[in-house]
Design goal:
Layout: E1 2-7, E2 10-11, E3 16-23, E4 25-32, E5 38-40, E6 60-66, E7 74-81, H1 88-95, E8 97-100, E9 106-112, E10 115-124
Parallel strand pairs: 1-8
Antiparallel strand pairs: 1-2, 1-5, 3-4, 3-6, 6-7, 7-10, 9-10
């Protein structure tokens, strides 16, 4: 995941961006925007520690945000992925995000190229 952090189109350097991945357990890591205002997270593989259960939701939640004292923070990117984990569409989206914290978060339905009948629903300030 790579993105650029802006505020009203202006660069925001030296700012901590948090990524939380939840799949049974929660995994968090952080990145600091560099002098070019980019943040980067390396690919992370996680497995659930929950026992197999046919009634359990097997979705991965990815939440990228700036901390501001609230549980959700300033939401940059929020997605629940229940299928297409290895999607080239998702990889492409995550490779070049532009996040403007001055914009109100929006909900986007993005068609999945590998399965046009499905889409990813993303909430956030990144495009």
């Amino acid at each position: 995941m790579k993105g650029q952090l802006l505020d009203k189109g202006q660069p925001v350097a030296n700012t901590k961006v948090v990524r939380a991945l939840t799949y049974g357990d929660e995994y968090k890591d952080e990145a600091i925007t560099d002098h070019n205002v980019f943040f980067t997270f390396t690919e992370k593989s996680i497995k659930t520690s929950k026992p197999a259960n046919m009634f359990d939701n097997e979705s991965l939640v990815q939440h990228v945000y700036l901390e501001n004292g609230t549980p959700e923070g300033v939401v940059l990117w929020y997605i629940t992925v229940s299928m297409h984990y290895g999607s080239d569409t998702l990889k492409s989206l995550l490779a070049d995000l532009e996040c403007d914290i001055a914009k109100d978060p929006q909900t986007y339905d993005i068609p999945i190229e590998e399965a046009p009948e499905h889409f990813f629903t993303v909430y956030g300030a990144c495009t």
